[in-house]
Specification:
Organism (chain B): Vagococcus luciliae
InterPro entries (chain B): Cyt-d_oxidase_su2
Oligomer: heterodimer
Distance between the termini of chain B: 56 Å
Pfam families (chain B): Cyt_bd_oxida_II (PF02322)
Number of strands of chain A: 6
Strand order of the largest sheet of chain B: 1-2
CATH topology of chain B: Formate dehydrogenase/DMSO reductase fold
CATH class of chain B: Mainly Alpha
Structural class of chain B: mainly alpha
CATH architecture of chain B: Up-down Bundle
Number of strands of chain B: 2
Distance between the termini of chain A: 75 Å
CATH superfamily of chain B: Formate dehydrogenase/DMSO reductase domain
Subcellular location (chain B): Cell membrane
Strand content of chain A: 5-15%
Radius of gyration of chain A: 24 Å
Number of helices of chain A: 16
Keywords (chain B): Cell membrane, Electron transport, Heme, Iron, Membrane, Metal-binding, Transmembrane, Transmembrane helix, Transport
Structural class of chain A: mainly alpha
Shape of chain B: globular
Number of helices of chain B: 14
Largest sheet of chain B: 2 strands, antiparallel
Largest interface: A-B, 70 and 64 residues
Chain lengths: 468, 334
């Protein structure tokens, strides 16, 4: 089998799987920190129970997120050695800072938080979860600094002798405008994920009529976080789209499914039938003016024009046979799934909060079931978001500088790659399954579950009332 | 070779030493779950000794990998792609081990718990064993070519007598280090049993070290290239091992623990000393990867040095503080 295909498949598989748990961890850590803050401020024990209960779910997700993160770090060297050589001078620094600044912080304080409930005073213990939460957010910042360079290279020069990109300004790397649209978008998306996991799980418990006060309060916090997060995600995503139209016109045109330049002002396609073979959009349902209203440009170039411009710019470097067309349907529909579920979540959060306020939600079974289904929505959005971003970078690993084909490890055989793909697939299936079962089980037990064997042990108290 | 290049070569060595010193005992404790503890309560006790700290210990490896990527991208690229399958199974070991802690504590019955205890046990053996193999392979030389890649490596380039001895040695030292940690951190049966098992293992360790030294002499160029320093470091490794044994027979657990940790530091120092000024040794010596031509640019090294100088002391401070919070012995029935 083709080595490049296998390496790409592996990157896609590991990244998507890893990125189920990262946003969940970031979002849940934040939500738990909020709950514990409310406990410390309001002194109401229910918030402490919440922090503990949702903290447990967070820890299950975090465990899987951490271990799959190591795969991410290692696979750049394992599968993409030539990319690592080309990019190392730039990619390595943020990665090392990520470890020093973020990973140590997360891992150390998570230990203190987990084992420190009865050990430290409330404020110190609260500080621990905030440090964990800040650590998870910082870690995203540094890895996205590297990713932003891949989308939009800045602050570098090419060393002709070694064919490597060399960093010219660390500050410049961090000032990359791509980073400052991508980071908020990803971070807020993660926060929504935490909110909707909590809201959906709470809805499921409300359906069972268990611990109503606890889960209503949890759902409210989850939805407030989800609402604020989803609005901010949409705002940040909007900014990112404007930047993409400038930096990567081919990606933008593919996301909008336009082959020929738009009319002026530009309409926005709600849905379209795309023929990738004849390179045309067969039919579409579109809203006039909307793309111009959203994006601010008078008209947008289509893929044919973008293709021409890319050939003009890069043919001397990469040759005229390079295919700059992208997997249009995936990008077009991927974007719509991402944005569609994103908007749906914002709407659901508003409706949910209203119904909670009116105290009606517990009698609306179908609505609660919608929120249970809603647990999957942020994961769908996140996944499609990454697919669009990363597939849209093709044919480059570093936009305009280094191709995917040149990036793969020359020493690695198809057999090795096949083995690792199979191993990861099996491993991920097991981990995903177990983690799902354990989370479900933890929610099912609820916050006030006492293990019968533990209870018996504690029950042997000679001075307790009722023993005699 | 510039000063910064030299500094980062040393720092990579320090990070790997830190990883083995700290995560080494986590591996040992992982093995002890099946080899020392005999019932659920003892296993709970054993696992709890590392519960709050193993995660931050593992970050040393992530940092070492990240630092290697940043300071020596060519090394990182050649090494990681060259040891593909070994690293794959190191990752598998780290993964099943990493999830086992939380999955075990979330388990509902003995059967589930048992599954994750096995995952913890196996992961804790696989990882140090394969790392031992990898570091030994690194110093006996691999088929690197002009592209700086390990091309057409054969089975025996990875699996050979020396690398197996290296793997067994690192696993054994990890286990001893873990036993010493358990002596330090537990009381009751686990502590006594750890002591008894450790006593039996030192003769094996010394025999292993002799074989390791002979093979290092025969299979590497350490003693022709750098006789004095290699010998001194080898002697130090033996001295630390002897101190660990002394601490075991005299029931001084602190001494034993520090000493097995220093055995790891000695081994890493021995290997890095022999590597210098190379980072990867090629079978055809003209293709060896050198510190000089494997590193990042002076600018990136400078940035990283500043970042490290600022952040590392802070990290070390709070990590030390976290350790200090959990110095009490873990009792069996709380």
């Amino acid at each position: 089998m083709d080595i490049e295909f296998l390496a790409r498949f592996q990157f896609g598989m590991t990244t998507v799987f890893h990125f189920f748990f990262v946003p969940m961890s970031i979002g849940m850590a934040f939500a738990v920190a909020v709950m514990e803050t409310m406990y410390v401020v309001k002194k109401d024990k229910i918030y402490k129970d919440m922090a503990k209960f949702w903290g447990n779910i967070f820890l299950i997700g975090f465990a899987v997120g951490v271990v799959t993160g190591i795969i991410q770090e290692f696979q750049f060297g394992m599968n993409w050695s030539e990319y690592s050589r080309f990019m190392g001078d730039i990619f390595g620094a943020p990665l090392a800072v990520e470890a020093l600044l973020a990973f140590f912080m997360e891992s150390t304080f998570i230990g203190l938080w987990m084992f420190g409930w009865d050990k430290f005073n409330e404020k110190l213990h609260l500080l621990f979860i905030w440090l964990v939460s800040i650590g998870t957010a910082l870690s995203a910042l540094w890895i996205l600094a590297a990713n932003s360079f891949m989308q939009n290279p800045v602050a570098y020069s090419i060393n002709e002798a070694t064919n490597r990109a060399e960093l010219t300004s660390f500050v410049g790397l961090l000032k990359n405008h791509q980073l400052w649209v991508e980071y908020p978008h990803v971070l807020f998306g993660a926060i929504v994920t935490g909110g909707f996991v909590i809201a959906g799980s709470s809805a499921w418990k409300m359906l069972k009529n268990k611990d109503m006060e606890f889960f209503k309060k949890s759902m409210r916090i989850g939805l407030i976080i989800g609402l604020v997060g989803s609005i901010l995600t949409i705002v940040a995503g909007h900014q990112q789209m404007i930047a993409v139209a400038d930096d990567q016109p081919m990606k933008f045109a593919a996301m909008e499914g336009i082959y020929e330049d738009t009319s002026s002002p530009a309409p926005w396609n709600i849905i379209a039938s795309i023929d990738t073979k004849d390179k045309e959009t067969k039919w579409e349902i579109s809203v006039p003016y909307l793309l111009t209203i959203l994006g601010g440009e008078d008209k947008y170039i289509g893929m044919d024009q973008a293709n021409k411009e890319l050939h003009d710019e890069y043919d001397t470097k990469f040759g005229s046979e390079m295919d700059y067309y992208l997997p249009v349907k995936t990008l077009f529909w991927g974007f719509r799934f991402m944005a569609g579920f994103g908007s749906l979540m914002a709407l659901m959060a508003i409706v949910g909060l209203y119904l909670l306020r009116k105290n009606k939600i517990q009698s609306m079974k179908w609505m609660l079931w919608l929120f249970v289904a809603g647990i999957s929505f942020p994961f769908i959005s996140n996944t499609f978001g990454w697919l669009v971003t990363e597939l849209g970078r093709s044919p480059w690993t570093v936009y305009g500088l280094f191709t995917i084909a040149d990036s793969v490890s020359p020493s690695v055989t198809a057999t090795s790659l096949l083995i690792s793909n199979i191993v990861y697939f099996l491993l991920f299936s097991v981990l995903g399954y177990v983690m799902f079962i354990f989370c479900k089980r933890a929610v099912k037990k609820g916050p006030y579950y006492v293990d019968p064997s533990e209870a018996r042990k504690d029950g042997i108290d000679p001075f307790a009332k009722g023993v005699l | 070779m510039s000063n910064l290049q030299f500094l980062w070569f040393i720092l990579i060595g320090v990070l790997f030493s830190g990883f083995f010193f700290l995560e080494g005992f986590d591996f040992g404790v992982g093995m002890a779950v099946k080899l020392v503890a005999r019932n659920k309560r003892e296993r709970d006790q054993v696992i709890e000794t590392i519960g709050p700290v193993w995660e931050s210990n593992m970050v040393w490896l992530i940092t070492a990998g990240g630092a290697m990527f940043a300071s020596f991208p060519e090394w990182y690229a050649s090494l990681f792609s060259g040891f593909y399958l070994i690293l794959l199974f190191i990752l598998v070991g780290l993964i099943i081990r990493g999830v086992s802690f939380k999955f075990r504590s979330s388990s509902e019955n003995a059967k589930e718990r048992n599954t994750w205890e096995w995952a913890l046990f196996l992961g804790s053996i696989i990882v140090p064993f394969l790392f031992g193999m990898m570091f030994v392979d690194l110093v006996i030389g691999l088929p690197l070519d002009a592209t700086k890649n390990v091309m057409n490596a054969t089975f025996t380039d990875y699996i050979n007598l020396f690398s197996i001895v290296g793997g067994v040695a690192v696993t054994l030292v990890s286990f001893l280090h873990g036993l010493n940690y358990l002596r330090l951190k537990t009381e009751g049966n686990v502590r006594e049993r750890s002591l008894a098992i450790a006593k039996k293992l030192y003769p094996v360790l010394f025999a292993g070290l002799v074989v390791f030294a002979i093979l290092a002499y025969l299979k590497t160029d350490f003693f022709t290239e750098r006789f004095t320093s290699s010998l001194i470091l080898l002697v130090l490794i033996v001295v630390f091992a002897a101190l660990a044994a002394y601490g075991t027979y005299k029931d001084k657990e602190g001494l034993s623990f520090i000493s097995t940790g220093l055995v790891f530091v000695g081994i890493v120092a021995f290997l890095f000393n022999g590597l210098f000024p190379r980072v990867m040794i090629a079978q055809d010596s003209q293709f060896s990867l050198l510190i000089e031509n494997a590193s990042s640019t002076p600018y990136t090294l400078k940035v990283m040095t500043i970042v490290t100088v600022v952040l590392l002391p802070i990290v070390l401070l709070y990590v030390a503080w976290a350790y200090k919070q959990f110095t009490k012995r873990v009792k069996i029935d709380r």
